[in-house]
Each structure stands twice: as structure tokens, then as C-alpha cells.
Amino acid sequence: MPEMKTRWDIFCTVVDNFGDIGVTWRLARQLVTEHGLAVRLWVDDLRAFERLCPEIDIDAVQQWQHDVDVRQWPAEWQPTEAADVVIAAFACQLPSAYMDAMVEREKPPLWMNLDYLSAEDWVIGCHGLPSVKYKSVQKFFFFPGFQKGTGGLLRERGLLERRRQFQQDLQAQREFLQGMGIDPAPGAQLISLFAYENSGLASWLDAMAGDSTATHLLVPEGRILGDVERWLGVQGLAAGAVHVRDALTVQVLPFVRQDQYDRLLWCCDFNAVRGEDSFVRAQWAGRPFLWHIYRQEEDIHLDKLEAFLELYVKGLSAPAREAISGLWRAWNAGEKIADHWQLTRKHWPELEKHAEAWCQEQALQADLATALVQFYGNWI
Question: What is the reported pTM?
């Protein structure tokens, strides 16, 4: 008889952005395609999911997408047999009836809390440790991370090879951009902007508009559009809109599926990203980038920002280190960043080389999906 596939349940609560579902959707697909697992992905907001996977039926209780069993997480939970491995993404609370089903299994499942990504030192000490217990079922901490002793980052098999081939193929890049209606002027630098609301944006747009180098700014639909509208003096910006001011062309893009967004990042010279999912994908793009971290109460997100910067800038010259760090700090404080941007531009070749080196360094670690599977293998 063929061996039964190990069954995994991933639970995702969509908070107020796309990072939660973005991460869990990538993870679920990779566990199926690369590790041959049977995965159910429980999601409480299929409308947010639809932005990443347009073929989703937002009314379906159960459906198959990319060989993942997608389930609507209902308000009224129905009796469901617990899986062999249970992942509560980002500390979401499992249904109490499901937790009882975990207890009722002859062999308790491996129960993990897949936590938020952080570069803070304490993560290494907590990764893989037991957390709370529910009756006979033990939960474990599982932390993605950038250093040895963590769970690593989401990275599909062959991703960097595909990226490298794409970046070396100018015709493939042109065709991709044309397919999205993007036609940058010859010699224009291409920048993507995906961010939360930011009062520092106007100064950056002023700097790009007044630059001697042309810039084509690609803005996927999202929360930053209001700030772009105010700077342009227009209302109702939507996908397809193109506005030119001096050396700056601003183009609004539709929200795209994840593989398209990856290629968009690969095409750009610089990427402004936000949250967790796009933050990781910008690093795999091997290009200089700017992170808008998700704001948390009492500014504890700034500790995470500093922890990442401390790791990321190692190996840079002191001037380049100060330039990129200053840009990131000002952007996340909502301050004017024009001067920081100009300073960063002075160190462009070094920052480009460093971005690729950082990418290759991170690729030496096991990817997150593989690390989860290995953790389960060690546990049993």
C-alpha cells in the first residue's frame, strides 16, 4: 500500500493586511509541491485571500487551489479531525473544539505557533522551545529568522536561480513589464513602492522629481495611495493611472498575485516594501530596498527594525552603512527623507553589491518550509 501523506493544518487569521495570508499561502503551497504533504489551509477572510489568488471562490466552504485544501474558517466550527501537524500562524487562537480534537487523537499532533519574523537576539534562544500545553498536547515556538538557530525564511526551491536568469534576460523583463502596461523611458531607474501611510513620502517624491536621473515609480494599489494622491493633487488614483512631474513618472499598478510581484521586484533597481511577506521577497530580489515595518504599540516595532539593521549593514563601509540606516530610520519615523535618499544614491554600487551578498548569505540556511518538516521529523 502507498504510504499515507502526513496531514498538516495551517490556521490563518487575516488581521488588517496581506502579510498573514501571504506567508501562509506561500508556505502551504511549498509544503505540498516540494514535500508531498497534504495541507489544509484554514482562512477566516477569503476576500483578502482573493487579492493574492483571484481564482478563489470567496463563498466556498472548501475548495482546492494549487493542490492545497483551502477551508473557510467558520464562525460556527464544525467537528473536524485534527491533523498530524497543526500550525497556528502568528499566534492565532485555534477553535476550542479543534483543540479538543487534538487531544482525542491516539497520537497527539505536533502543535506549533509560527511566529512573526524578527532579527532580535532572543529569538534564537526561544526557537523550538515548548510553549503552553493544552491538556496532553504541547505547543512549540517556531520562529523564522535570519541567523543560524532560527527557522530561516520562506524560499521555494530554485527561486534564486529563476531570479538570476530573469534578471540576466532583458527581453524577458521587457515582456513582463509590457504585459503589465509598464513602459519606462530608456535609462530611467525603476522603483517599486509598497508601503503603509507615510508622511515622509512627499519629500522623497520631491527629490525624485527634481533629480537629474529619470525615475519610473511603480505603486501597487494599497494604503500609500492616499499620500501619493495628496502629492499629485489628484483624487481617486486607481490601477492604470500614470502621472508625470518633471523627472518622476508615477504609475499605479493593480494588486497582483505573488509570482508576478516577485518578478516586479526583480525588475526594479530599488524596492520599498512593507510588513513581512514583501520584506522577505525584496531580499530574495538581490536589490537595494527600504522596509516599512508594521507599526506596533509603544513603538516596539522600532526594536525589530534596529535588530534587522544591525545584521543587514554588516560588511558595508561606514558611509554606506550610515546612509542606508538613516534612510530606513527616517522612513519609519515618517520624517522627510530627501537628504537621506540623496546620500544613499552616492553609495549605490556598494549597496547593490551588498544586497546580492546578503541574499546569498541568507540562502545558505534551510528555508522555512524545510525547517518545519525537519522539526517534525526530529519530533517524531
Answer: 0.95
Q: Which member of 276, 277, 350, 367 is catalytic?
A: 276
Q: Which residue has the cell 534564486?
A: 160
Q: How far is CA 353 from the centre of its chain?
A: 22
Could you tell me how many residues make up the chain? 380
Strand order in the sheet with 130-134: 62-65, 68-72, 38-43, 7-12, 85-89, 110-114, 137-142, 130-134
What is d(CA 59, CA 329) in angstroms, rounded to the nearest whole number?
Answer: 42
Q: Tell me whether residue 20 is one of the annotated catalytic residues.
A: yes
Averaged pLDDT in 10-residue chunks for the chain of 380 residues? 76 80 96 97 92 92 97 93 97 94 96 95 94 93 96 98 98 97 96 97 98 97 96 96 98 94 98 95 98 84 94 97 98 97 98 98 97 95
**Are the C-beta atoms of 96 and 88 separated by less than 8 Å?**
no
Please say if 276 is a catalytic residue: yes
Q: HEC profile for the chain?
A: CCCCCCEEEEEECCCCCCHHHHHHHHHHHHHHHHHCCEEEEEECCHHHHHHHCCCCCCCCCEEEECCEEEEECCCCCCCCCCCCEEEEECCCCCCHHHHHHHHHCCCCCEEEEECCCCCCCHHHHHCCCEEEEECCEEEEEECCCCCCCCCCCCCCCCHHHHHHHHHHCHHHHHHHHHHCCCCCCCCCEEEEECCCCCCCHHHHHHHHHCCCCCEEEEEECCCCHHHHHHHHCCCCCCCCCEEEECCEEEEEECCCCHHHHHHHHHHCCEEEEECCHHHHHHHHCCCCEEEECCCCHHHCHHHHHHHHHHHHCCCCCHHHHHHHHHHHHHHHCCCCCHHHHHHHHHCHHHHHHHHHHHHHHHCCCCCHHHHHHHHHHHHC
- Our CA angle for 65, 70, 75, nearest 5°, is 150
- Which of the residues 20, 84, 227, 350 is marked catalytic? 20
d(CA 88, CA 110): 11
Number of Cβ within a 10 Å radius of residue 104: 12
